[in-house]
Amino acid sequence: MPFTKIIKNKAYFKRFQVKYRRRREGKTDYYARRRLIIQDKNKYNTPKYRLVVRFTNRDIIAQIIYAKIQGDAVLSVAYSHELPRYGIKLGLTNYAAAYATGLLIARRVLDQLKIADQFPGVVKPTGDWKPYKHDPSTRRPFKALLDVGMARTTTGAKIFGVLKGASDGGLHIPHSNKRFVGYETEKNKYDPKVLRKYIFGGHVADWMKEMKEDDPEKFKTQFSRYIKEDITPDKLEKVYTDAHAAIRKSPQLVKTKKPENPVHRKYNLAKLTPAQRRERVIAKLEVLANQLDSEIPK
């Protein structure tokens, strides 16, 4: 079909339909959202759950959300800034932290629904992937669809680390292994050992060893907090292993205690009354008069 120029005349503008606000802001992919939230009519009011994963510069947010007429409702939430409570004090946005956050949201929502004992998931992660097969004699697991928002779904992306953590935590999230770390597109081959290495922070340990040998001074500045916490490359795997066990033991959300009488800092200047402004001007004029008197020779 040949290229046709759009003539923006009166007829064009009269028929122009403005896109949704969040589409104009580039925040929501409505093509994907429509397919994630629309439920079959014959399922009546059964919610269609989504595992919503978002990354910020300093945090990882994982939520279980379902859509209602009034808007989205959040069933459960987990953040990577909760991980220090389980022993992961540093690297709260790397691949290992993403896996731990996914594990935390899975165990938390199952505990919330009182079915955590029925779906233990993968207690010792190996990086293996198996297609889901339902056993008719058992209960179906909690199902959620992965919602990545506007993130790019490239192979090895950290967003799929959260997916793997939630899947190992006992949730049923339809997926394949083609976006995990360790999958080679050209060879169409998947190596679970590579994913296991990333789950336990092996890539960070390798980087630490390499930098320590090549540039010790840069290592001291780059990993100063690791040195302060006495976390060596050999101790990293144990840190994440203990954290996974701690998450499974107590995944409940702990609310932070807020002070009873918080002191709010106000940086904006208080508005002056007319009398105060007059006094302020008079004081400034007096200071200027004194300066002039001192500068004039007697």
Provide key terms for this protein.
11 helices; 10% strand; 298 residues; two-stranded antiparallel sheet
Q: Could you characterize what this model shows?
A:
This protein is of the alpha+beta class. The protein contains 11 helices and 6 strands. It has helices spanning 10-14, 21-24, 30-37, 95-112, 159-168, 192-199, 202-214, 216-222, 224-228, 236-249, 274-295; strands at residues 49-55, 60-67, 72-79, 145-147, 183-184, 189-190. The strands form 2 sheets. A 4-stranded mixed β-sheet has the order 3-2-1-4, sandwiched between helices. α4 crosses α5 (159-168), α4 (95-112) packs parallel to α10 (236-249) and α7 (202-214) crosses α8. The N and C termini lie far apart (93 Å). The model has no long low-confidence stretch (mean pLDDT 93).
Mean pLDDT score: 93
Q: Give the termini distance in whole angstroms.
A: 93 Å
Q: How would you spell out the order of helices and strands?
A: HHHEEEHEHEEHHHHHH
Computed structural class: alpha+beta
The largest sheet has its strands arranged as 3-2-1-4
Determine Rg (CA atoms, Å): 28 Å
Which bin fits the share of residues in helices?
25-40%
Number of beta strands: 6
Principal-axes geometry comes out as: extended
Q: Which regions are unreliable across 5 or more consecutive residues at pLDDT < 50?
A: none
- Total of helices: 11
The major pleated sheet works out as: 4 strands, mixed
Strand content: 5-15%
